[in-house]
Design brief:
Elements lengths: L8 E6 L3 H14 L5 E7 L3 E3 L4 H5 L9 E3 H5 L4 E5 L2 E5 L4 E4 L2 E4 L2 E4 L3 E3 L7 H4 L6 H19 L4 H7 L1 E5 L3 H19 L9 E5 L11 H13 L3 E3 L4 E5 L2 E4 L4 E3 L2 E4 L3 E3 L1 H5 L10 E2 L12 E3 L4 E2 L1 E2 L4 E2 L4 H20 L12 E5 L5 E5 L2 E4 L1 H27 L33
Parallel strand pairs: 1-2, 1-9, 2-5, 9-20, 11-12, 11-17, 12-13, 19-21
Antiparallel strand pairs: 3-4, 6-7, 7-8, 10-18, 14-15, 15-16, 22-23, 24-25, 25-26
Length: 436
């Protein structure tokens, strides 16, 4: 009997985040209707998570199902194989990826495994703080807030009550600012449900630098700072965190903030596992790439999103880990893989941002697009438009209709239900030691 040998080549995309998903979707369109290439998308989750909206879930404004897009729906009838698994290793010499569900070989590889929280070796911070990197994290925060409010309402000791009602946000970057604003809006309303005074909950932001939103236009950063101040957020500038425990955070200034809730948003780094797998990395553990987003010394292996160390030629500094850069890199990698398949010349990728939009609660924000500087409602509208545009690019008008308005008609009066796999206790995220 004649043996049939398959000549089909495999493109493996690791991670269904902003960069990985866009790579797979765009590449599938480019190579269709060729049958000699197969695209496999690998992710441990069944959903594509809208990371830029996690603060809304943590603050109980938006239900989790509004920011979790089922991959089955997004991939639809596309010729993309979905492999739900956790990546456990990458062997570049053998062109193989190990997962907890077996090994797969590749002809082309795209690494888009995202990032993890950088705790900067601050003693106790990893063990005693929450992060906001996934829907699981957002739901843990949401559930913990519920527990703290309920527990505080039963306490007669003023110190215990104050600790329970003080919520510390570490880091004054985009994530920290959006989360602090969200909590400042939602906590007074939620506190009332437990018979607490709306004025009792406090949001304290700990920032090592002298200003928030470093890198943003200074005028907009100042407007954001003033907005947080109006919402009652207490900002401690020039206050690097020195250590953390179950009862609060100690600052380098000698000050201590007593709290049973610390949410650390002080920075990110690429997965530590990349270094363990022998992959050459640079700043913040990110993988060094050339102008075509290929891993240095490994043609056909590409990196996108937070995993990639891309140098901005204008600033000579690493490009920020952001959703818009990840999407653009996904587009670039898809084109460059297709160029290699056709024997054409690849195109160099240069990071470029057309603007930024930062939420400061349900109806406030700051933003810039081109020469325009926006604040208040216009900035929030721009952020909402960007979110809808992303949905349209990813899944068309049907996806916009399904998800753009989900849970957004009103600010919810109760904690939105998290999906079963994202409920507190179901996700092995940060330890909750000291938070119950």
């Amino acid at each position: 009997m004649e043996t049939i040998v398959s000549t089909q080549k495999t493109i493996v995309v690791l991670g269904a985040g902003y960069g990985g998903l866009r790579t797979a979707l765009r590449l599938e369109k480019l190579i269709y209707p060729r049958l000699d290439y197969r695209i496999t998308l690998v992710d441990q989750n069944r959903h594509h998570q809208l990371i830029t909206q996690l603060h809304e879930v943590a603050g109980a404004r938006t239900p989790a199902d509004a920011v979790a897009l089922p991959l089955d729906l997004l991939l639809g009838l596309r010729r993309i194989d979905m492999h739900q698994a956790r990546v456990t290793g990458i062997d570049l010499s053998r062109k193989a990826v190990s997962t907890d569900r077996g090994e797969m070989r590749f002809d082309y590889l795209v690494v888009g495994l995202g990032s993890e929280t950088n705790f900067y070796n601050i003693p106790g911070m990893r063990e005693h703080s929450f992060s906001l990197k996934s829907l699981g994290d957002a739901c843990l925060i949401q559930g913990h807030i519920h527990e703290m409010l309920e527990w505080a309402a039963s306490q007669s000791d003023p110190q215990s009550r104050e600790e329970a009602l003080t919520f510390v946000v570490g880091g004054g970057g985009f994530t920290g600012v959006e989360l602090a604003a969200e909590l400042a809006e939602s906590l007074p309303r939620l506190a009332s449900r437990y018979g607490l005074s709306p004025e009792e909950p406090q949001v304290v932001m700990v920032e090592a630098g002298k200003a928030l939103l470093t890198g943003l236009n200074p005028l907009l950063a100042m407007r954001a700072t003033r907005a947080l101040d109006r919402k009652g957020v207490r900002i401690l500038f020039g206050s690097p965190a020195q250590s953390a425990d179950a009862r609060g955070v100690a600052l380098a200034s000698g000050q201590r903030v007593a709290s049973r809730t610390i949410i650390w948003a002080g920075g990110v780094r690429a997965l530590e596992a990349l270094e363990k797998w022998g992959i050459p990395t640079g700043a913040a553990g990110r993988i060094k790439v050339n102008d075509f987003l290929e891993m240095e010394g490994h043609p056909g292996v590409y990196v996108v999103g937070d995993s990639a160390l891309v140098i901005d030629q204008d600033t000579k500094r690493p490009a920020a880990p952001s959703a818009q850069f990840a999407v653009a890199q996904g587009e670039a990698v898809a084109r460059n893989i297709y160029a290699r398949i056709r024997g054409a010349e690849p195109e160099a990728y240069h990071p470029h941002t057309a603007g930024e939009a930062i939420s400061l609660g349900a109806s406030d924000g700051v933003a810039w697009i081109g020469p325009l500087r926006l604040s208040g409602h216009p900035a929030q509208w721009l952020k909402a438009f960007i979110a809808k545009h992303y949905l349209w690019e990813t899944g068309g008008l049907d996806l916009v209709r399904t998800y753009a308005g989900l849970g957004k008609e009103t600010v919810r009066q109760d904690f939105p239900q998290c999906l079963p796999e994202f409920r507190p206790g179901a996700v092995p995220a940060q330890t909750r030691a000291g938070h119950s």
